[in-house]
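Support reply, case 0932

Customer input (verbatim):
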Amino acid sequence: MNGHRPARGNPSREQNPAYGLLQPIIIAMTDNSVWKYALQNLEQRFAALPGASVLRLNRLFDDYCSAKAVMDRITRAAGSGPLCHDCGGQCCLNGKYRINGLDALVMIASGTPVPDPDFSRKPLCPYGHENGCSMEPRFRPASCVQFICEPLAALLPIAAETSLAHEERSLRELISRSESLSGLPLGLPLLLWGEQQLRGVPEPPGADII
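Our regenerated output:
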């Protein structure tokens, strides 16, 4: 579909408030435009947070990156390197909704360049390149780090399975805490969040920012 968002609702009634006055904007915007809009909005919202919240979030960001790095080390020790090389990255296909708000915010806060996605690569991951993923393991999307395919699962010893389960719970808890601290839906895919913002979909209520 050339990267354009699909039409929704009734185009002949698109000026009817019942169908959403923002709908024509969504139809005209490409995935790249929505991504840039969402990323800019995330940066602005983060910059507007109270200093105390930013300090607590920065400590959380470190734990978030550490948990993902630990999971990467565990799977590599089990033999994921050769397995993924031979597979060719089938789990990376159709991944435009992989990066969530927290994944992006961690990169923003650390000064790490956020990937400039190429959505025309479909079905290849828009955040990768010819050599694979463009992100270091600690910055990769949580959904990618958490995914264990059947061939890899067969290589994991019991101790590794237990450790991975522990780190996955940690990631989920950290995402939840980040949403409470920021008042933002950071667990949502960033691209989806941008789409919802442009459609005027209300954000879920966040906890009080302290």
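We compared this against your earlier run and they match. Two observations from our side: Residues 1-24 have pLDDT under 50 and may be disordered. Residues 20-199 form one domain. Please reopen the case if you see a mismatch on your end.
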